[in-house]
Design goal:
Elements: H1 2-9, H2 19-26, H3 32-36, H4 42-50, E1 52-57, E2 60-65, E3 68-73, E4 78-81, E5 88-96, E6 101-108, E7 120-125, E8 133-137, H5 141-144, E9 151-153, E10 156-162, H6 163-171, E11 182-188, E12 193-198, E13 205-211, E14 214-220, E15 226-232, E16 243-249, H7 253-260, E17 269-274, E18 277-284, E19 287-291, E20 297-301, E21 329-330
Antiparallel strand pairs: 1-2, 2-3, 3-4, 4-21, 5-6, 6-7, 7-8, 9-10, 10-11, 11-12, 13-14, 14-15, 15-16, 17-18, 18-19, 19-20
Protein name: F-box associated beta-propeller type 1 domain-containing protein
Pfam family, one: FBA_1
InterPro entries: F-box-assoc_dom_typ1, F-box-assoc_interact_dom, SCF_F-box_component
Length: 336
């Protein structure tokens, strides 16, 4: 029986084609909508279990497996492990415009053997032989780890923090504590410094996103199925002005609960645009439901799907840092 299971797991995607052709010459050329209608091929399913997607930038994917970081470009089929120590936790990836380098923002986990600036944020340049360099400490650095995927906008990285949630979680403050201010942490990828900016007043469940050249934030509460969508125009970025753009009331919420199960505990929601239309993806039970801006159910997908803020924009532009990385390979990914 073990041999049969092994043979089934190793079965090719197509009986007449090698997996290398089926994956790299066919699947990568299909539009996302076509792939969504199909079940994930077995090698891709094994990839999802083996690797964790940490960050994406300009067609590059930053992956983690057993605390070992690696970088790849699915379009050019390039892959390389990274020399950065497993003691570092990735917070984001970006292109440093003055030098053209792709860099990883790292955080060194507290509790490890003390070193100079051990609680500071660090930067590692892809292709560099130098170890990650410290850029100083940030009081909220530890919380950035739990604040989701940073949102790129105007060349900067953004995280939304709920100071009250953080204080209550780690310092056990009561619900009626006077400090309920929300902030957005901005990492300037040119100056490589952190700063704060104001966030709209939203309920405890919130998501930051970018859409159509605007910075956005969705907010909702557990008592009523309404999702508020706040937007910041690019011209309002410096003045930090937010506008309530949409209020999406989910239709037939009671029936959806019966059919698909409870909302995820933190209401996993993604707001995105597609062909000029605004789409809202909501996690219900083990399903992901797609709503339009009027709150009407458009489609749903089963099979334990998760929604994420990661975005992949494919590029065939060769990156010069790949050949400088030990273990660099092309067309021979170790995880497929």
């Amino acid at each position: 029986m073990a041999k049969a299971a092994t043979a089934a797991a190793a079965a090719p995607l197509h009986s007449g084609l090698p997996d290398e052709i089926a994956i790299w010459e066919i699947l990568v050329r299909l539009p996302p909508k076509s792939l969504l209608r199909c079940r994930a091929p077995q090698p891709v399913a094994r990839l999802a279990k083996a690797f964790y997607l940490c960050a994406s930038c300009d067609g590059l994917l930053l992956l983690s497996k057993r605390n070992q970081l690696s970088i790849c470009n699915p379009a050019t089929r390039q892959y390389a492990p990274l020399p950065a120590s497993s003691a570092f936790i990735p917070l984001g990836m970006y292109r440093h415009r003055p030098t053209g380098e792709y860099r990883i923002l790292l955080y060194k986990e507290i509790g490890l053997p003390a070193t100079d600036g051990q609680d500071a944020c660090h930067i590692f340049a892809l292709g560099s032989v130098q170890p990650p360099r410290s850029i100083g400490s940030l009081q909220e650095a530890e919380q950035l780890r739990f604040s989701g995927v940073p949102v790129p906008f105007r060349g900067n990285l953004h995280w939304h923090l709920n100071k009250h949630w953080y204080l209550q979680k780690y310092w056990y403050l009561p619900e009626n504590h006077e400090s309920r201010s929300n902030i957005i942490i901005v990492f300037d990828t040119t100056a490589e410094r952190f700063r704060e900016m104001c966030a709209p007043v939203v309920p405890d469940h919130h998501k930051l996103f970018e859409m159509d050249g605007m910075l956005g934030m969705s907010g909702f509460n557990d008592t009523w199925p309404i999702i508020d969508v706040w937007m910041m125009q690019e011209q309002d970025y410096e003045s930090e002005v937010w506008t309530l753009k949409y209020r999406v009331e989910l239709s037939n919420a009671d029936l959806l609960l019966v059919q698909f199960g409870q909302f995820v505990d933190y209401w996993n929601v993604v707001v995105a645009s597609c062909d000029g239309a605004v789409l809202v993806l909501v996690k219900f039970g083990k399903s992901v439901l797609q709503f339009d801006i009027d709150g009407k159910l458009v489609s749903f997908h089963h099979k334990d799907l998760l929604v994420t803020q990661h975005r992949l924009k494919q590029t065939l532009v060769p990156h010069t840092f790949f050949p400088r990385l030990d273990g660099h390979s092309v067309n021979a990914w170790p995880f497929i």
